[in-house]
From TrEMBL:
Molecular function terms from GO: alpha-amylase activity
Record region (Disordered): 1-30, 93-113, 234-267
Classification via SUPFAM superfamilies: (Trans)glycosidases (SSF51445), Glycosyl hydrolase domain (SSF51011)
Gene3D superfamilies, per the entry: Glycosidases
PANTHER family attached to this UniProt entry: ALPHA-AMYLASE FAMILY MEMBER (PTHR10357), NEUTRAL AND BASIC AMINO ACID TRANSPORT PROTEIN RBAT (PTHR10357:SF179)
Domain Glycosyl hydrolase family 13 catalytic per the UniProt entry, residue ranges: 276-592
Protein name (Swiss-Prot/TrEMBL): Alpha amylase catalytic region
Organism phylogeny: Archaea, Methanobacteriati, Methanobacteriota, Stenosarchaea group, Halobacteria
GO biological process: oligosaccharide catabolic process
Organism this protein belongs to: Halorubrum hochstenium ATCC 700873
UniProt cross-references to InterPro entries, sorted A to Z: GH, GH13_alpha-amylase, GH13_cat_dom
Compositional bias annotation for Basic and acidic residues: 14-29
Length: 698
């Protein structure tokens, strides 16, 4: 189906890319503005992949004439409330438009400075039945409920927020094709605007409903949330959605519907912990035997307690060791091993309880790629339009990357090619880590998500977008790189910021508009960064490693981090492993796994705490020797009955910390007692790098 995808929620003046899905490069595609609010002069271009910018608030219908028929796409536009900001609604467009020197870091600073206080929303679905559902009676309704939440810094209450719903145009089209009632004609929205009902006889194989929360301060333009969505799906006897499922059996005792939320990360990520492998230096291997060598180390990785393996690119490349300059997207690199070796590695990982993430590169090819070699020397090359070009005649690129060339995602051959790459590798692995996600159009990521999630709902999509963008959780990605927390942990380790600022970094996720169901990859180093202990020292590295394991998110260890490795991309010094560091990581991972409060779903709360020196016989003091109050932070994590207080100490000496909570005496990480009494008889938690202590039940 060439339909361009889900409804769009935009600010006036914000561009969005329009593209047919599953394109035929030889097909004919034509766009038009089928309907627009009064006063609009907005238009669309003539190309199959084009752009649209709403110019007045209201509802637009954009038409796409495609080889499989005519399609309509709803765009809801709101008055711009982001004056002076390049982007409203969290699109990556502005980042892609900047030159390399200002992208992408400048975006975060500007968004933060302007104080874009976006609300948040959650959409849930259920099915309700009227009466006994007997044949001939109205069987029931699909009910969609939106729960809006104000921005944490807003003065508005939830009751002050409005909700705007949009039924997915693709499902309207399918309902009409199946001879059902148009869901839009049959829907009923509650008086408070927070609930939408659709009779089940208007539901095709799947009915998706999207919604945004809208905050309207007096005298100000609206601020609009990241959209959320839920679906009601028909489930026939064999368990697969089927548009031919009949009306018989629609009773409370035998419902043939299921409901699900569309933007939730896979359930397994709630307890996930990631281990990144830089494939070319992880194992000492001869040419072509790297996959086998990595497979041999899988038991050791699994013994650490992690459950997800991220492999840097494994495809044919131009010889640079990082592997991101790809020349063959459909086969593995000769220096690593053949396709069978890679599949055997994945199977070994699965046998040891590890899921595998494939590093998917969609922004560029290597300049050694056959397309580029032909296009660069021949202006009339059939591959010329598959790349971006500068006026100088050089290809588009970012920063000082001289060995790659940016793909032109407006070219249907490029789109078709990348979709084929997805189809080639997605069935083998458990998720994609998407390289340079900020540099690829949103419309492509939305198509990727629908494509893989329709096959495997538990397939993980993780974006490398630095800094993170709230809108990338709107029908695109499940887990987002948290470079904000990464940077703050570096600042704390260097002594430039107090330890308590890591809590500010976590709070910022909601403050800039991420919904509560978004998840974040927490890390202190990776293949692009200097090792944390090299920059900040061993003591801070121990506390920072504990921070990513105890704050809400998905923790990641970069290979070698767990043994005290100091080189960024050097061969891992397995023979010189620091067993004390590995033991610490094993205990941290185990503690996190055993306590749901430490996972992404656990609540995070600030607590009162007071830092003294490491000598419990001293009276409380502000600072002493190698310990300063700014080196320490304490916080509470709670999930149901699992209630914990966590204390992190970045200083090179032990600290004694009084916490304003009644708590136990045993550190769950070490299994030893950690509470001492000072000269005044006050209980203090004695902490080296981290202590996790149960909170006494009230």
């Amino acid at each position: 189906m060439h339909h361009p995808g889900p409804p769009r929620f935009l600010a006036t003046g914000e561009r969005t890319e329009l593209a047919p899905r599953d394109p035929d490069p030889d097909g004919r595609y034509a766009w038009r503005v089928a309907d627009a609010p009064p006063g609009s002069e907005a238009t669309v271009g003539d190309a199959p992949v084009t752009e649209f910018t709403p110019d007045v608030p209201g509802r637009y219908l954009l038409g796409l004439d495609a080889p499989d028929g005519d399609h309509l796409l709803t765009v809801r536009a709101f008055a711009a409330s982001y004056e002076g900001v390049d982007v409203a609604g969290g699109s990556g467009t502005a980042i892609r438009d900047r030159d390399g020197g200002d992208a992408p870091a400048g975006y975060a600073a500007r968004e933060r400075r302007e104080g874009v206080g976006r609300p948040r929303v959650r959409v849930d679905a259920r099915v309700e039945f009227d009466g006994d559902g007997a044949a001939g009676e109205r069987a029931g309704e699909a009910v969609f409920t939106a729960t809006p939440t104000p921005n944490p810094e807003s003065t508005l209450d939830a009751a002050d927020l409005a909700v705007t719903f949009a039924v997915d145009d693709r499902d309207v089209e399918r309902a009409m094709a199946a001879g059902r009632t148009n869901p839009r004609d049959a829907l009923d929205v509650a008086e408070d605007g927070r609930e939408l009902r659709v009779p089940l006889d208007a539901v095709p194989d799947r009915l998706r409903v999207h919604a945004v929360a809208v905050a309207r301060d007096s005298g100000a333009d609206p601020r609009v949330s990241v959209a959320d969505a839920a679906a009601v799906e028909r489930v026939p006897a064999d368990g697969r959605p089927d548009d031919d499922a009949g009306e018989a059996g629609l009773t409370p005792d035998a419902p043939d519907f299921e409901t699900r939320r569309l933007n939730d990360p896979p359930e397994w990520t709630e307890g996930a912990s990631v281990y990144e492998v830089f494939v070319r230096t992880f194992a000492d291997a001869d040419e072509g035997e790297t996959f086998d060598a990595i497979a041999e180390r899988i038991p050791k990785i699994a013994a650490l307690g992690v459950d997800t393996l991220w492999l840097t690119p494994v495809l044919g490349h131009d010889g640079k060791p990082h592997g991101y300059n790809i020349v063959d997207f459909f086969d593995t690199a000769d220096d690593l091993g053949d396709r069978d070796d890679f599949e055997a590695l994945v199977e070994t990982a699965h046998d040891h309880g590890l899921r595998v993430l494939f590093d998917f590169v969609a922004n560029h090819t290597a300049r050694e790629h056959e397309w580029f070699r032909d296009a660069y020397r021949n202006p009339d090359s059939p591959y010329r339009d598959r790349y971006e070009w500068q006026e100088s005649g050089e290809p588009g690129t970012y920063f000082d990357w001289e060995l790659i060339a940016n793909l032109n995602h407006a070219n249907l051959d490029v789109r078709r090619f990348l979709l084929d790459v997805i189809d080639e590798w997605a069935p083998l692995v458990d998720g994609f880590r998407c390289d340079m996600a900020w540099a690829v159009p949103d419309s492509f990521w939305r198509e990727l998500r629908d494509r893989v999630k329709d096959i495997d709902r538990e397939f993980l999509l993780m974006d490398e977008t630095i800094p993170y963008i709230p809108g990338f959780h709107e029908g695109m990605f499940d887990v987002h790189f948290d470079a904000t927390l990464y940077f703050q942990l570096r600042q704390v380790g260097r002594g430039a910021e107090p330890a308590a600022s890591v809590l500010d970094a976590v709070d910022q996720r909601a403050e800039i508009g991420f919904p509560d169901h978004a998840e974040f990859l927490q890390y202190i180093e990776n293949h692009d960064e200097t090792r944390y202990r090299v920059e900040c020292g061993d003591a801070a590295a121990a506390a920072a490693g504990a921070a990513i394991m105890t704050l809400p998110g998905v923790p990641m260890a970069y290979a070698g981090q767990e043994i005290g490795q100091r080189g960024r991309r050097d061969a891992i010094a397995w023979d010189h492993a620091r067993e004390d560091v590995r033991d610490r990581y094993e205990r941290l991972v185990a503690t996190r796994r055993e306590h749901p409060a430490l996972g992404p779903a656990g609540d995070l709360a600030r607590v009162d705490y007071h830092v003294a020196s490491g000598d419990p016989t001293e009276r409380p003091i502000v600072a002493s020797g190698d310990v300063h109050p700014d080196d320490v932070v304490a916080f509470r994590r709670r999930d149901g009955d699992d209630d914990l207080v966590v204390v992190l100490n970045f200083a090179p000496a032990d600290a004694s910390v009084a916490v304003g909570l009644d708590h136990g005496e045993r550190d769950l990480v070490t299994g030893t007692e950690c509470v001492v009494a000072d000269a005044d008889g006050t209980d203090r938690i004695r902490v080296g790098d981290v202590a996790v202590v149960p909170v006494d039940s009230e």
